[in-house]
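User: Here's a structure from my thesis project, written as structure tokens. My advisor, Dr. K., wants to see whether a designed sequence matches the one we expressed. Can you design one independently, without my sequence as a hint?
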């Protein structure tokens, strides 16, 4: 009983205020941090969704990720990055735990269960980055859009697929897959006509879209 009582509760650790930690609330479109800011904290998303964007020297902005509850971000400061390389913006009302670099290092050193969870998160995120790179190199923009919709609807995760919420704009989808808004609009209308999605203000993804991607459906072979 004593061991159970003293066991590390990672959910409690991440959700509560404590030494080196604070729980913050952000409203829709509010920045958590901006590209070029000093990087000295790690963030954990408790509630809501946030998007990570990068601005090039030429002024072109790209969405590189959309994060959901249970994900960390800003962890590059643990690897010696002094400045933020992206901007993080709340897509709806969010509750976020901010953890100082020192508090993260202490928790990783003192709490093996937390260290295991954080390592698993980093490995999963690294795999996702590799998959995104392969997707960009070898797949058409139409297949990239199909894959992104499946990811946003939580296909492959525990529980049933969910409507994509908050609603993702065509501009954001275009930035995420590296194409134009007009092409995204064309593909979305095509997916809807094929019965792969419902798209009436909010996007609902059907299992048929997953089948089309997995079985390399010729309808998704679009030549650019």
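Assistant: Designed independently from the structure alone:
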């Amino acid at each position: 009983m004593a061991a159970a009582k003293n066991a590390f509760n990672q959910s409690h650790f991440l959700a509560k205020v404590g030494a080196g930690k604070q729980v913050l609330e952000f409203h829709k479109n509010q920045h958590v941090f901006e590209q070029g800011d000093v990087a000295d904290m790690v963030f954990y998303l408790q509630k809501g969704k946030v998007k990570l964007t990068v601005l090039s020297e030429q002024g072109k902005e790209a969405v590189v990720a959309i994060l959901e509850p249970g994900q960390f971000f800003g962890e590059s400061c643990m690897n010696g990055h002094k400045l933020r390389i992206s901007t993080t913006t709340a897509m709806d009302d969010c509750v976020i735990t901010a953890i100082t670099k020192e508090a993260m290092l202490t928790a990783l050193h003192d709490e093996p269960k937390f260290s295991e969870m954080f390592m698993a998160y980093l490995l999963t995120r690294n795999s996702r980055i590799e998959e995104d790179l392969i997707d960009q190199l070898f797949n058409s923009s139409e297949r990239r859009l199909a894959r992104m919709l499946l990811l946003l609807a939580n296909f492959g995760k525990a529980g049933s697929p969910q409507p994509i919420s908050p609603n993702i704009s065509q501009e954001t989808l275009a930035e995420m897959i590296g194409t134009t808004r007009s092409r995204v609009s064309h593909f979305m209308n095509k997916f809807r006509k094929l019965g792969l999605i419902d798209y009436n203000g909010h996007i609902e993804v059907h299992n048929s879209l997953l089948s089309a991607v997995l079985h390399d459906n010729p309808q998704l072979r679009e030549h650019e």
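When you compare it with your expressed construct, this may help: The beta strands are 21-26, 31-33, 41-47, 50-55, 61-67, 72-73, 87-90, 94-100, 197-200, 202-205.
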